[in-house]
């Protein structure tokens, strides 16, 4: 089970502002751009073409119809993040229930904070119960469901995070990463951490999680076996 993906359109008449949003979104693996629009008319067409859109990044001051007026006319509107150089529209943003209000120039940290709010609002009851962790890998940020995180492997100055769908390489230490995980993640070896809930079989000094075979180190074996037992 993965978190509900964000499918967005960008509405801004400035190519430079569009480029910033495209760059930020390109660094996040759970957001998809459905369309880029220069004005409200193009945005209306984009929403009809892509009815699964669940987020609009919307500029306010654009040629023709303003962003605020455009959004107020929508039936069942997607979530809204306003992007503007003008702070005086904050009250109107609140009145139309915008999820966030980003002032240009937009910092990446503020962009991510706004995305977190959108993720919380569009999450289904099932995904709200699931826990997620944010993992940085090169210039990409991954949002990983902990229920799908199978094991973590030390890899020199990096770690390899194995999920049911992919392998993510991140600049981190195994000990530091383990400290961020719930207690059902167990260290079984100096170089490996496993998800206790996904273990299929423990045979001798080997753990099986689907197709993965993970060794159990002698130093860790006694404590690992103890923690496998039902509490």
Automatic annotation (TrEMBL):
Domain of life assignment: Bacteria
Modified-residue entries (4-aspartylphosphate), positions: 59
Record key words, sorted: Phosphoprotein
Stretches assigned to the Response regulatory domain: 7-119
Location of the HTH LytTR-type domain: 133-197
Phosphoprotein recorded as keyword: yes
Identification of the protein by name: Response regulator transcription factor
One example GO MF annotation: phosphorelay response regulator activity
Pfam families: LytTR (PF04397), Response_reg (PF00072)
Organism name: Paucihalobacter ruber
InterPro entries with a match to the protein in the record: CheY-like_superfamily, LytR-like, LytTR_DNA-bd_dom, Sig_transdc_resp-reg_receiver
UniProt key word Phosphoprotein: yes
